[in-house]
Design brief:
The chain has 463 residues and is of the alpha/beta class. The protein contains 16 helices and 20 strands. The protein folds into four domains: 100 residues, Rossmann fold (3-Layer(aba) Sandwich); 61 residues, no CATH class; 114 residues, Cobalt-precorrin-4 Transmethylase, domain 1, CATH 3.40.1010; 128 residues, Tetrapyrrole methylase, C-terminal domain (Methyltransferase, Cobalt-precorrin-4 Transmethylase, Domain 2). Strand 17 and strand 18 form a beta hairpin. The chain binds S-adenosyl-L-homocysteine. It comes from Yoonia rhodophyticola.
Length: 463
């Protein structure tokens, strides 16, 4: 970019032009749109320019330019259509501190005047650095046709109304209001009633937007449970009923998403296209952005959002923007899975504590108090434990756990394709590798399925 486009404040400032013929008139037509003080200096002045002077639009000095004529001028135009004279006058203007433009002489000009589409106060300036004036004209013609002629009037009146629109929450609500005004209600008001119709139209439009659509954004962080829609809480169902936007995890089932309001926008935050999972920071930003737009956002997470759900990161992002939120708990995979093998997570005389552990953390395989876990009677529900199974098995055996300790793996808990695999610590691998599970799976260390379950042929053999 050899020329930097800016909008120069010229209200009340001097713009001086040397020349009185056609080139001068062409520039003056543009310059008269500004609120600058215009001075035209030439010993031969066209009639139109005299007329404009009579109308008070500019001042004439009827002689050749002299030193001192361009003092305090912001801009100076040399429009004599005579190279020698233009060079002489621009040298004067230059020493007097004005920015100089020589008509049709790009090389010696300090600035150029763009092609302009004028919908004051909306102004579009088009420049090609002198390379393609034809192109600039074509773009200008295109924009002239595209931008409603009343756009300027609407923008001017709209500006006086901006304060009133602050009752609408920032973001989507305000954008919706203004685009309805500029492209719909505003032009229509001018057409029907002229400029006088614009303010009443703005008032009506604002009332409509306040009563029908004004609401603050809100986020519900909702547990979707393990997959069976009947394991949703009533609160979760109600939230889905109200959602404008649902942002869900990969593990949330289609059956549950079906329950969302018809008009809701459903966003899969578990996958972006065919690529890898979305980054947590991007998910946080997505939630915040939709809430700031005034939406009721349901952030739908598998199981319970408070269990390995990266809930706190999302809450922090939401709180940072002062957005209201609530956490709606869900049934975590361990609860649903243990119910389906007919056992309890805790049992008098067996284990008075249960651990929910993860096979993975941000650094890779997660470390735990293996020594404590290796004691008889200990129970742990292992989330995200498929890849780390061999590691966990190795650690527990190394710390003296009984190789015969029961281990139960439940895949696709509560779904039609649920599978239960009963094994032992010694057999965890290779059993898991042989089973080649594709769905989410939870592993219970220290729990075997109750006999009744075992006898109902639900259990798969992979040993
Ligand atoms: N917040 C979730 C856990 C998210 S971590 C919850 O409370 O359940 C993801 C892990 O959860 C999976 O790797 C798997 O171990 C477990 N999981 C989630 N849904 C499951 C399901 N339907 N069946 C089996 N395991 C599940």
């Amino acid at each position: 970019m050899k020329h930097f486009p800016i909008f120069l404040a010229v209200e009340g400032r001097r713009i001086v032009l040397s020349g009185g013929g056609d080139a001068a008139m062409a520039k003056l037509r543009l310059l008269m749109k500004t609120e600058a003080h215009l001075t035209v200096i030439a010993d031969d002045i066209a009639d139109d320019i005299r007329k404009w002077a009579d109308q008070g639009k500019l001042r004439i000095i009827e002689r050749a330019m002299e030193p001192g004529d361009a003092l305090c001028a912001a801009l100076f135009y040399a429009a004599n259509e005579d190279d020698a004279e233009d060079a002489r006058v621009s040298a004067i203007a230059n020493t007097e501190g004005a920015l100089v433009n020589i008509v049709d002489n790009l090389a010696d000009s300090q600035f150029i005047t763009p092609a302009i589409v004028d919908r004051d106060p909306v102004t579009v300036a088009i420049g090609t650095e002198g390379a393609a004036p034809v192109l600039a004209r074509a773009i200008k013609a295109d924009l002239e046709a595209r931008l409603p002629t009343q756009l300027g009037v609407l923008a001017r009146i709209g500006k006086t109304f901006r304060h009133a629109v602050e009752v609408l929450p920032m973001g989507r609500k305000r954008r919706d209001f203004w685009s309805a005004f500029y492209f719909n209600n505003g032009p229509k008001a001018i057409e029907d009633k002229g400029e006088a119709g614009v303010i009443p139209a703005l008032e009506t439009l604002l009332d409509d937007h306040i009563t029908t659509t004004a609401k603050d954004g809100h986020v519900d962080l909702v547990g979707a449970g393990p997959g069976d829609p009947e394991l949703l809480t009533l609160k979760a169902r109600n939230a889905l009923d109200k959602a404008d936007v649902v942002i869900h995890d990969r593990l949330v089932t289609g059956e549950i998403l079906e329950l969302a309001r018809r008009e809701a926008i459903i966003i899969d935050a578990g996958k972006t296209g065919f690529g890898p999972s979305m980054k947590q920071a991007d998910i946080d930003a997505l939630i915040v952005q939709h809430a700031l737009d005034g939406h009721h956002v349901v952030r739908l997470k598998a199981g319970d959002p408070t269990v390995f759900g990266r809930l706190d990161e999302e809450i922090e992002a939401i709180e940072a923007h002062d957005i209201s939120y609530r956490v709606i708990p869900g049934i975590t995979a361990a609860s649903a899975a243990v119910a389906n093998i007919g056992q309890s997570l805790t049992k008098r005389g067996r284990n008075s504590a249960v651990r929910l552990i993860t096979g993975h953390d941000t650094k890779g395989y997660a470390d735990h108090d293996w020594n404590a876990l290796a004691q008889p009677g200990e129970v742990a529900a292992i989330y995200m434990g498929k890849k780390s199974a061999r590691f966990i098995q190795g650690r527990l055996l190394m710390h003296g756990a009984d190789p015969a300790t029961p281990v139960t793996i439940i895949e696709n808990v509560s779904r039609a394709d649920q599978q239960i695999i009963a094994t032992t610590l010694a057999e965890l691998e290779p059993t898991l590798t042989r089973a080649d599970l594709q769905g989410p799976a939870i592993t219970f260390y220290g729990l075997a399925p109750r006999d009744a379950v075992a006898h109902s042929h639900q259990i798969k053999e992979f040993a």
